[in-house]
Amino acid sequence: MENFGRNDYDLDLGDFNVLWAGFTPILVPSNFTHEEEKYLLASQLTLALGNSSVDNVLKKYLSDFGENESSSEKKSDIIQEVINFAKIECEILIKKLNEISFDDNGTTSDFAADVTFRRLTTTIKSIHFHIKFGYYYESLTLIRLFLEQLAYAFTISQTHVLKSSDIVSPTRSINHLKKVLPTCGKLYGILSKYSHIDISTINKYLTSFEQQPAIIKHSIIYSLESALFYLNVLEYQNIVFEICFKKYLITFSAINYNSKNESFQVNDPNPQFMKLKEHLLETLKNHR
């Protein structure tokens, strides 16, 4: 399927870190080493200070750059690990999708599911940005949207020819997905509850500083919670994908598919997902 238009702004901001040169933010790739970040920052400070020598700026202002990693940076590293893992998982699915040839066997339901999964890449990039930079409520809303779209793709894949009566809202589709993934209903309820600012979640947005009320606008610690929810939905994505396109796929990892009677069973959780979840839970436990 062809994408129209330029892709100048088709960025996954989860792939970037922010360096500050004075009051100027600079986006740098997250895989930059401390040494690369240091030299880039030194070059910008050299220009700002009117100094002709980058080496002088390095020695005078950045001699200990990156030596003392903060607790916040360590938590950001874990979040980056989740984002990198998610990108690989999503790229694998899109590669599989590109290899599918619907030909004369494709149905309107197949096409609708195909469009849904391709459009999800944008939602996922938005989730990465909000998790990476600590926008807790906003990230939960997007993760809920992610789950709704998966439920929608699953629901429309269950019919061969879409009619107006078959088209249900993404939110109502959750009830259909619960029949295969019972835990998704509970998760959807949690996401719906915590993606709204109300008195029950006051501790997530109001604190005190020097005996004065203070507003929490973003938090890397809370992003760890978002990342945990995100991993759960990401795992659902693999399952729903294989269900939607089971008649076109050759190999399966998330489900056990019997092509003779077109039945399937959901497999046990992927060990990679479980390992990341345990890592996140342990980090949350240590930083609360």
What does this structure look like?
The protein has helices at about 35-50, 55-60, 70-100, 110-130, 135-155, 170-175, 185-195, 220-245, 270-285, and strands spanning about 15-20, 25-30, 205-210, 210-215, 255-260, 265. By secondary structure, the protein is mainly α. It has 2 domains: about 15-60, no CATH class; about 70-285, no CATH class. The strands form 3 sheets. Strands 1-2 form a two-stranded antiparallel ribbon. A two-stranded antiparallel sheet has the order 3-4. It has a two-stranded antiparallel ribbon with strand order 5-6. The radius of gyration is 22 Å and the shape is globular. The N and C termini lie far apart (about 45 Å).
List keywords for this structure.
288 residues; mainly alpha; 2 domains; two-stranded antiparallel sheet; two-stranded antiparallel ribbon; 56% helix; globular
Structural class category: mainly alpha
Biggest sheet strand order reads: 1-2
Round the mean pLDDT to the nearest integer and report it. Answer: 85
Number of E-type strands: 6
User: Helical residue percent?
Assistant: 55-70%
Please, how many domains? 2
Give a short account of the largest sheet: 2 strands, antiparallel
* DSSP summary: helix tally: 9
Strand proportion: 5-15%
Blueprint of the fold:
Elements: E1 16-21, E2 24-29, H1 34-49, H2 54-61, H3 71-99, H4 108-132, H5 136-156, H6 170-177, H7 183-194, E3 206-209, E4 212-215, H8 220-244, E5 255-258, E6 263-266, H9 271-287
Antiparallel strand pairs: 1-2, 3-4, 5-6
Helix pairs in contact: 1-2, 3-4, 3-8, 3-9, 4-5, 4-8, 5-6, 5-7, 5-8, 8-9
